[in-house]
Specification:
The protein starts with 6 loop residues before the first helix and ends with a strand. It is an alpha+beta fold and about 260 residues long. α3 packs across α8. The longest helix is centred in the first third of the chain and has 22 residues. The chain is built from 8 helices and 13 strands. Strands 4, 5, 6, 9, 10 and 13 form a 6-stranded antiparallel beta sheet that branches. A 3-stranded antiparallel beta sheet has the order 1-2-3. The chain has one domain.
């Protein structure tokens, strides 16, 4: 797929990253990202002939890391490596034959005392206090310092979306095994595909969702539809772009099990 990266058609140019743009849907577009999207669609479509009731949609929150603006490729690399190692170990020992096609993504959260209950519980299980953006056991007592800390930090949230071919394993067992591998409240979510849509339509939609590359804050958690709000501030957009460019967008795609 060839795209004309015209700023009027495709959105706002990013001066620090000449080939990267933000489209009108608040997502990043660039040649590397378009390649990732093509490869992801191709990988997901390997399951196009699998019965719908054998497929499931899996989301894993890999880590929660309190950061300041900067390049966080090392944090992303560590989270990706740990997630993939746990998937391999769990599949080899407990879920032989399982096939997985997925993509690693990264979001930013703003520390807030008004964050939803599910998100607060999830972050706490990963050792982060949602209100202050610091270790859960290290909450300060100076309101001014806390406010300054909140404004200068974000919570980096590497996560993994995947389509899973369960083969002979039940949906309940697959979900339980991954929840065991990645313990924590609301950290692992497993869903069936939409029954009123064809398998290929489901896979196409999920491939697009896996590679949305939004640079905007969202309220996603649990079964709610994801809604994206304000764009990340310029320094945080630059942080995410630098992180993705250094890590390498093609490394975000992960495939386990035979084609």
């Amino acid at each position: 797929m060839n795209r004309n990266y015209d700023t009027q058609r495709q959105g706002v140019a990013l001066p620090m990253h000449s080939k990267w743009r933000i489209d009108t849907g608040k997502g990043l577009i660039a040649p590397e990202i378009e390649e990732l999207r093509r490869n992801t669609l191709q990988a997901y479509m390997q399951f196009g002939r699998v019965p719908a009731d054998r497929l499931m949609w899996l989301t894993i929150i890999s880590a929660a890391i309190v950061v300041t603006p900067g390049n966080h490729a090392s944090h992303l690399a560590s989270a990706v490596r740990e997630t993939e190692e746990k998937i391999i170990a769990r599949c080899r020992r407990r879920l032989p034959g399982l096939r997985i096609r997925g993509v690693h993504e990264v979001d930013l959260l703003t520390p807030s005392s008004h964050m939803g209950t599910h998100k607060v519980k999830m972050l706490k299980s990963l050792g982060v206090d949602a209100a202050f953006g610091r270790d859960a056991g290290n909450i300060g007592h100076d309101d001014d310092r806390d406010s300054q800390h909140q404004s200068s930090t974000r919570i980096l949230l590497p996560h993994f979306h995947a389509v899973v071919d369960r083969r002979e394993h039940s949906a309940a067992r697959v979900a339980d095994e991954f929840r065991s591998a990645f313990p924590g409240s609301w950290r692992t979510l497993a869903k069936s595909l939409y029954s009123h849509q064809t398998v290929t339509f489901n896979l196409s939609n999920l491939a697009g969702y896996s590679t949305k590359m939004k640079v905007a804050y969202n309220d996603s958690m649990g079964d709610r539809n994801t809604k994206f709000f304000n764009l990340y501030e310029p320094e945080w957009r630059d942080s995410i772009i630098a992180t993705l460019q250094t890590f390498g967008t093609q490394r975000l795609l992960y495939q386990y099990g035979r084609s």
